[in-house]
Amino acid sequence: MLRPSLSMARKRIGGLVAVACAVAGGAAMVTATAVLAETGATSHLPVDRLAAADLLVTADQAYAIPENPDLPYAERVPVPAELAAQAAHVDGVAAAVPDLTFPVHLGAGPVLDGHNWQTAAAGPVDGDAPDGPGELALDTATARAQGLDLGDTVTLTTATGTGDYTITALTDTPGAHFDPATATALAAHPGGGVDLIAVTLADGADPDQVAADLATALTGHGLNIVSGDDRGDAEHLAGGTARGELIALAGALSGTVVLLVGFITAGALSVSVAGQRRDLALLRAVGATPRQVRRLIATQASAAAAAALIPGIALGYLIAERFIAILTEAALVPAALPLALTPISGLAAAVLLLATVQIAARGASRRASTMPPTEAVAESRVEPRRPGAARTATGFALLAVALAQSILPLFLRSEAAFISAATATMTAVIGFALAGPVIVKAVTGRIRRRLHPGTAAPVWLAVNNSHAYALRTAGSVTVLALAIGLTTTQVFSQTTLTRTIADELAAGTRADATVTGPVTAADIDDLATRVDAAVPLVATSVIRERHVMGDTEAEATPTLALGPGADHVIDPGVTAGSLADLHGDTVALSTATAGLWNAGVGDRIDLVLADGTRTEAAVVAVYERGFGFGGVIASTDLLAAHSGPRLYDTVLVAGDPAAATAWAATRPGTAAAPGDTALRAPSGMSPEQWVNVLVMAAMTGYVLLGVGNSLAASTTRRRGEFAALRVIGATPHQIRHMVRREAFITAAVAVAAGLLISVLPMSLLGFGFTGQPWPQGPLWVVPAAAALTTLIAYAAIAIPTRQALKTPPTMLLAAVD
């Protein structure tokens, strides 16, 4: 079927150009998404401080979930220190050195990473190795920036306290370095655990064999032996976290991207098939089988797609590079994480797009290929019959489901309600795509019945054309409504979330002052004697496993950890229990989290802390302001019992702000500010929200490009209609006037539908969460989206019409026939 396919395509190139544009844009989006996924799956941060080690022994840094991606831990899972000695006795191991990393605050200077000296000794050293509790080696860059040199004394603050140290050595290895005993004491890991073990191989040793022997020797401890590029992720936890987030982001985008690509490509193909209905009918009349007709259309579409894939995929790689740069600027991805620009992503995009085109082409040509030849010839010049009852019923059922999703925020105040309201738009768009022809026919029919006898001919023709060709009109309306719906829903869902968080934090923060800087547990006790309450604050996460219908599910829940006295500095809207009991192994849960976990006050629940520690905590309170304060509020005692003392950088104070300011003035690098500056909602949207808006803007742009191409191709296909009107006396001005009125009708119905399926759920969301029955955010987005959509619809219809009218009608009729 290749030759007849290409022969027909040359005469109907307009429709296939729309297909090619849809595929090119789709290939760019799919390629960019695939690059994100491939980067998350294969890229690694470069090994830095531990580059001299051939192998690294580390604990498993992710929570394994059967048949689901693992959840990376936010904090380091320790390795038993005594295993270093066992590793050193394995054949082929020259040295096995334990490694520690802990925060160290250098006087009024920066916060550094503290390490034990063994891992810094391999680099160039100026001076003598630290040998005692009052000595350290400092990296040359920090020493130069702080004006320090060998022999100088500096004041350091760690989780165990503040002390003076003498600089005995300068090294190129970044950070502050202590002798092993001092580093162990300052890190204060429970049980003397270490972060990892750096293994150096003897000359001639086989790395794979040594790794296997190490795994055997250290079996039973849940350890990983990593080599090569994997060492970078073992050294820097941020690499594994960022990779997991990229995979999650790509997974979240993939469904929407594939849906949009399918929508736009199918719409472009339906226009192309509609332009060839007469040719297909004649093929059926001369004996072509339905399968041959479908293969012919699929071959045409695949040829157009193949021509568009190369520029589309190349654009996708450029988009991925820019998108990763934006993620890096927003501190969501480490700058050192390399982007995976391999042919795999482009190949995956090509396979997916070609498969999509094949499916869409065969679906679009199914009706033309299966109807009897005589009926196909008769229908080739008229609108197809009314859509099937099953299609229409399914469409209205989906619209009803979308309405149910929209009203959920009125009854449920949780993240699920946000998701339900946001996804209601996509459900409604699919429902409208199925029921659209009936809806458009009813709307235009009502307009047609209201036309008075003196109506201008172009207006009369525009209304009756829109009514008679309801399928064609509904296809354009659906995609235009999708563009409006995506834009308004994404913007208003993000701004409503921001407003909700800000309102809950404003209502629930009670701190009189906030102390920031390196603060130890002893410092907090001292500060508490001068004020009413001094409460340390830590942002962390916990994991809880659930069993749903026989499957194991788990997710990381953002958690605030607060010290005793939390009830003096925050008011999260406690509905049961009391925050005064938040000490020891206890937690408080938001209403949504308590319902999800089926837990209440007095229950004990199993949790996994951010460092992988499994523990059990008692629920002492349930609160309602879960968006502002997160799903879980834990006691800092619960964290300290398993991870040891911490160096806090935020303390909330209840009492006289002047007393807090006076106290902070006596501590180097510590400051106090009136009010609660830690839990104050940031102005505008967060970097994550801006990324979501950026992604959705790109998707909306693709939708608008697709609908513009489809409208232009559909209008170009009407050249015969325009020529016939010219022959019977219509002037070019009258035809342009008619087309403008059709564009207005299409845009008006699309704007009404788009706003209904997006503004309604966002208004209900705003009412449910803020008490205000309108979208929470910049209202100018609504008229801007409507105006842009109308402009694109008008331009995509008016420009091809003007071009078609430049050709004399007799020549145009001959060309069409």
UniProtKB/TrEMBL annotation:
Signal peptide start and end residues: 1-37
KW Protease (keyword) present: no
One Pfam family linked to the record: FtsX
Cellular compartment(s): Cell membrane
Family matches, as InterPro entries: ABC3_permease_C, Membrane_comp_ABC_pdt
TM spans (from-to): 246-275, 296-320, 340-361, 393-412, 418-440, 743-767, 779-799
PANTHER family reported in the protein's UniProt record: INNER MEMBRANE PROTEIN, MEMBRANE COMPONENT OF PREDICTED ABC SUPERFAMILY METABOLITE UPTAKE TRANSPORTER
Protein name: FtsX-like permease family protein
Organism of derivation: Glycomyces niveus
